[in-house]
Design goal:
Length: about 1000
Amino acid sequence: MSISIRVSALLTAAALLLAAAEDCCAQVDLPVQRVTPSGSHGQTREVIASGEMSAVWESEGSRIIELHSGGEDGRAGIRQGQTQLRARKVVVVESKRDSGYEVRVYARDNVQYVNNGHTRHLATHQMYLQSSDPVRVVSNIFTNPESPTLLMKEAVRKIGEPARQPVLATGFQTERSPFVLPPEVKNSQAASRRIQVRPRSSEPLQFDSFISRDTVPEEQVYKFTGGVNVLIEGLQTDVSGQPVSPGVLDLSADRVIIWTDPDDRSRGLESSGTGTIIQSKQTRLQVYLEGNILVRQGRNTVTATHAFFDANNDRALLMNAELRSLLPQSDGTFRIRAERLRQTSLNRFHAQNAWTTTSPYGKPGYRLQASDIFVEPGPISPFTEIDSATGLPKNGQPLWVTAVNSRLLIGDTPVLSLPRITAPAEDPHIPIRGAAVRHDRIFGAQVKTVWNLTKVLGQRKQEGMDWDLLVDYMHQRGPGIGVQGEYNQLFSGTRGSASVLWQLDHGADNLGLDRQNLAPDQENRGQIIWRHKQQTQGPAVLFGEIGFISDRNYRESFHEQIFDSDKDAETLLGIRADSGAYSATLWSRYELNDFQVSTDWLPRMDLYSFSAPLFGGAAYWSSHSMVGYGRLDPGAPPTDPNDVWTPGAISGVTGLNGLVAMTRHQIDAPFQMGPVTINPFVMGEAAVQDEALTAEEVDRYLVSGGVRASLSATRVMPFVQSEFWNLNGLAHRSENTIEYRATDVSRNIDEFAQYNEIDDNAQERGRIRYTIHEFGGLVPTEFDPRNYAIRQGAGVWVSSPWHELVDDQQMIRFVSRNRLQTKAGPTGSQRIRDWVIVESGLSFFPDGSRDNFGEDVGLIFGNYRWNISDRTSLLAEGIVDLFSNSQDVWSIGLLNQRSTRGSVYMGYRQVKARNFVDSQTLVASYSYRMSPKWISTGSVSYDVAVGESRGSSLTFSRLGLDWIVHLGFGIDTSKDNVGVALAIEPRFGPPSPTNMSYLLGLQQ
């Protein structure tokens, strides 16, 4: 067994004391592999290449396919049977032969090679396949370059002609712990090792070489003093039944003695002691090191005072040894220290008085310690993969770790003691992913845990699948359990997510304001949500969802952030096919939750065309047509009378059903007139509702047309200079657009039902409540969401999902976007910086009495940002109308941001619906690094119009080298909720976020 593998395998025993790191693999290069999986009837299986983007270049008898990205892990891939190769960039060279097709593959950047369930992570990889059929390409974006790309040329240079590539047997690397020195896979036929000796410093070596005749057989002895560095290559051993090699092993010490066979005495060493020894792997090799020993391999280091290695008899001993390993998952450093680390045979190891920690201190503030740790072959798990031919484990006899007298120490004080622990060495299979303890007034004391479901069930991890088991307990509510996860199968084009949660609830919901004590409809609460997409072999995509919620307030109470921001929980099934400028969708939706405002489609079809050229490109045609059977449901009222609900609060929604059909078409004819782009357009629509708001069939015809003109301009003014305003030249970039549109419809909006929902469920709940809270039970016409959307033009664009939202209207819209830029930075490396950004606009209604509540001008908006300096910005935005009962919404604030010290924001926000709503809120927040060890964050929100706090929070965090300590306090006035949290955590990698909202359970 090689030196570094022995050392690292021995040290792995101590990794049980943390049992929290995931496996990782080193990236290595492999020679070309020839893979010929047999299919049925002696034919080779189909080769499938997939990626988000693909480029195909064809020449005589050959085809080169370039693939990029794809999947959540950002890798494209190729698959044949049990063999998969995935990388960020993949090139496939396909050549037609008499026997079928030969396929040469070149992959680079974050390569993952999978064969028969085993995985290797590589830097680059080359592979040769055979297939009776041409390669099938699965991609969303296809291109056909006129000549080979640079990556294609690189691939051809690398892989060459297949006949020139030797068939090489390759070693295999199994998934390994980050605590094990990473191996490098080499050709298993390699039969030599290379030893290079050189001084560790500028001082020359003191060297002696002689033959020892005191042993039988005789030995060649090399003795080095004065500081020596030894590099060893070509060492090889078996790990878990697979041939692996540690690559270059770097050994340094004050004094080194090497024992080897006497026939090697003349191979490469000079009289000074430097040079290279080349020997076969069967040659005897023993090394003794003493004084300031440093062993380096990759990013891992081992230090010791004394060490002895016997490469032929699998023995090793290190005294006062310490391993430092960088964990890529957290960017933290992991340390293991032991008085003695000993290997007694091929698979047996012993560590004495060992401890482990992530603290960088010489004497750590915390550590996990054991008096003895043994690593030795153990029993075979029921889930171990067995070779059917031999009846033995495919990956060799599993190693087990036994730790005796394990203790967790804080300083020198033990806080936890376990007399004996036994677990697998290669993978402890600790299934827990995370845990949290919280307390507040709504849920009481809470314990929430997340478990790796695959490990809980004892199953092998499936590529592209990630499933969690959630187990919670809330003192004032009850226990909860659930499963949630995601899957993404690149080669099959399948992706999706699922969440199945159950909560036993003995309490009441607190949703804020006058809904602080709502009785749930039932004690057994939860959700079943599943979302799935499947890419077919052609251009079609299958999609489906299941969305079941136990009651109307479950998600808002237990998962408020998801309820506010996630899409609705729906139950639907459909298929979509895209081809160039055309798209078609056939789908059906059925609402499982009778308390939701919804439309069932049983079924529905949509057809789209996007800018299809007409008359040789002089005009472009776009269209959207749909037909379906819709069933509109306003939702059932809540069972608790304290849960405010207003019948008919959602405009255009009542209990209706029937045929809904629509077809609309638009022709654009853009042309250039000097610097101005002019686009005249005309749109027509025919629509019908079998049952509209009049409870009768209503058809509608629409004609809309107009012209849009835009002008873009840039002016550069290098003479503008000002130290006071931080200006070094000035460039003004401007884009101005004016659009006139006239729309005429045969039916009023008051007759057309709103089968297509405007809002998500969370916004619909708000509208149902504020009808009573803010408007006394009847929403004024000015604040009807359908009228507001019509004024904004939400329903007049051709592919609008809300085709109902149109009415008779004339409108001229002005929009101006301006950007002032200057240069910043030292001379010679200046960069362009935005100084001022202004966007503004308004709408003019020629018939204001009909279209804008009596005013000719409305929807006046503006967005402003002045970057006073690189750190300080003045921000403002707003939108207002001029008629009575109009909106008046605006905000202004000052932001100062320093990336290394913190940030401060102070602002004022007004939300006003004249005569009804008046909210004037002062908002302030900061994050400040007070010293290298202390950080504080805080926020406050206060409504000056009603003289009431809207919530506040304050957090202090101390960053030590061993611990991060958080102390946080928060108030949510709406829910009358107060949360206090104290968190103490080891500093494992970079400092954790100091935001305590996840601990306090507060929503600001």
